[in-house]
Design goal:
2 copies of one chain form a homodimer. The two termini of chain A are 17 Å apart. Chain A has 16 helices and 2 strands. Chain A has a single domain, classed as Farnesyl Diphosphate Synthase (Orthogonal Bundle), CATH 1.10.600.10. Chain A has helices at residues 12-38, 44-51, 70-81, 90-111, 122-126, 128-147, 152-179, 186-211, 216-243, 246-249, 255-258, 264-271, 275-288, 298-310, 313-332, 339-353, and strands spanning 115-116, 119-120. The first copy, chain A, is mainly α and 357 residues long. In chain A, helix 1 packs across helix 16 and helix 2 packs across helix 6 (128-147). The longest helix of chain A has 28 residues, at 152-179. In chain A, strands 1-2 form a two-stranded antiparallel sheet. The A-B interface holds A 41, 43-44, 102, 106, 109-110, 128-129, 132-133, 135-137, 139-141, 143-144, 147-148, 152, 154-155, 158-159, 162-163, 165-166, 169-170, 172-174, 176-177 and B 41, 43-44, 102, 106, 109-110, 128-129, 132-133, 135-137, 139-141, 143-144, 147-148, 152, 154-155, 158-159, 162-163, 165-166, 169-170, 172-174, 176-177.
Chain lengths: 357, 357
Amino acid sequence: MTPAHEQQVAAPEARDGVTALLERGRTMSTPVLRAAVDRLAPPMNTVAAYHFGWIDATGRPTDGDSGKAVRPALALMSAEAAGAAPEVGIPGAVAVELVHNFSLLHDDLMDGDEQRRHRDTVWKVHGPAQAILVGDALFALANEILLEVGTTDARRATKRLTTATRKLIDGQAQDISFEHRERVTVKECLEMEGNKTGALLACASSIGAVLGGADDATADALEAYGYHLGLAFQAVDDLLGIWGEPAVTGKQTWSDLRQRKKSLPVVAALAAKGAAAERLAELLAADAKNPEIGDFSEEEFADRAALIEEAGGREWTSQEARRQHATALDALRGVAMPEETRQNLFALADFVVVRER
Amino acid sequence: MTPAHEQQVAAPEARDGVTALLERGRTMSTPVLRAAVDRLAPPMNTVAAYHFGWIDATGRPTDGDSGKAVRPALALMSAEAAGAAPEVGIPGAVAVELVHNFSLLHDDLMDGDEQRRHRDTVWKVHGPAQAILVGDALFALANEILLEVGTTDARRATKRLTTATRKLIDGQAQDISFEHRERVTVKECLEMEGNKTGALLACASSIGAVLGGADDATADALEAYGYHLGLAFQAVDDLLGIWGEPAVTGKQTWSDLRQRKKSLPVVAALAAKGAAAERLAELLAADAKNPEIGDFSEEEFADRAALIEEAGGREWTSQEARRQHATALDALRGVAMPEETRQNLFALADFVVVRER
């Protein structure tokens, strides 16, 4: 079955446009990101290069998968939204990427995640101390890169990045606390995801404009676009975390179920009424006390996924992705910007909700 | 025997003056620091309050030992050095304390240290994830507090703090790498200590002046004072880490030897010529391969300490403390500032090299 959020497929030419936007963001920001990481003292530069997928665990250069690079693309489009050249957004793109990767390094360690982007995580390869230290270094570097721009607008940008980072940390704190709780409401889950994913996409979407001298109202509107885009992104991620194709996502089958994640489809299903929701609640309550969940068969996870779907958790999350997508586009109404940039921001939003990884 | 660095004892009235300066720094900055920490979402606010010694592990308020508070005192004096009111330095004092405590939270976890200031460390009480997370939050909060000041000078201050934080992280990286190496030179050890201790004291000593509008030359001179003060501070710390009185320092006897730290007295002793240095090198090389060092008797550690002293490591480190102290005072020559502030900075420098904890 095609999930509801994929029924709104972008036209092929629009997808090509998004590919070009992502590629541009990557091409323009990566050299600056690499130069920033090269500033780190050994062995932190090597550990960071491994994390970014530029070298393998033995130090050999790779042409590895460096992620979708949605954030750098947004930061450059954000500069254009303020009427500035895309280059103006580069320090913002790099700073946001550094903060994003700081959080990945620390979160993977806190969560005990052993794999990211088909590779062993930094703490698995280089040890917990390096994961902490290099995370810290990337965070510091993010501020350094932005403050080196030296303008009042750069100070405004740094302040927004700091606010976003604080929310990111709040989101991770909430996510950790959810693990120890039996029940999480849909509202709490959305708040956590808004902090953990929305805040930094909001920052990416506004930081280029701020660096380009946009006023606060424009920056706030772009931030709202990015925030809701982030929530749409996360809703899709939550769908892929259960029903995604492992060969495409790079994660295990039923990945979020294996990790007992209280993601949106799960909390939405548990909030529903009816036999499926009740049966799911019973199963998950038993699972929570069972350390052997890692040894469950494919069928056992498939049963849980079927109950989540039957209780409406999959459909609700698909609809939520579309609602957040629509709210993101709405946020751009009334903001004056070049028409091409507006269309690009629309196309990127479409891409975010219609993806398979 | 009175160590050489204590032969230069400050007069009692000067010590009273320093006590008052430290108390003023603590009194003026702590309420703002507490308000900043209160911004953290639960449970991070509680974990941070435990770390700062404001509450115990069960959440009850304490009137615990919150450290010497040299950094806040310096930040306020730094504002006065620029002719500003001490209050102008408060956001700087708070930001530096936040960065300092971010590094303590992460370092204690990376180093596996179970005790700090006579209490269990955060990772022991609240777990590794909270130590990482709350450290991150304090770092972000430091930038937030400074950037909220909103002036161009605050941007300059944030940039200096970011530079200092990067050095702090470099120093921790060096410290960790030293653990895995057989030999460390005196030069490498001083560079590590300059990064790990000097850089943040340098920032504390200049940040108030920057916030008060001082030019870069004045800020740089104050930074040099703080940097060498930090190296003097660390040299004394390294002496106390071996020969300190456990009841006063709050650490175990022979604390740094138990932890196999390649601190200044050790590397200076190993760099010396003669029978004691050779015997010490043999013992430490054997210790490095011995996981049972934790079970050594007091006598075994006392033997090593005696060899370090015989090889001249204790005397060299005492002299180094005095050299750095002199260089710190020299840095202030030629900087115009109120005479009282200059005397206060001198008195604080004396205090740093003549202390027992």
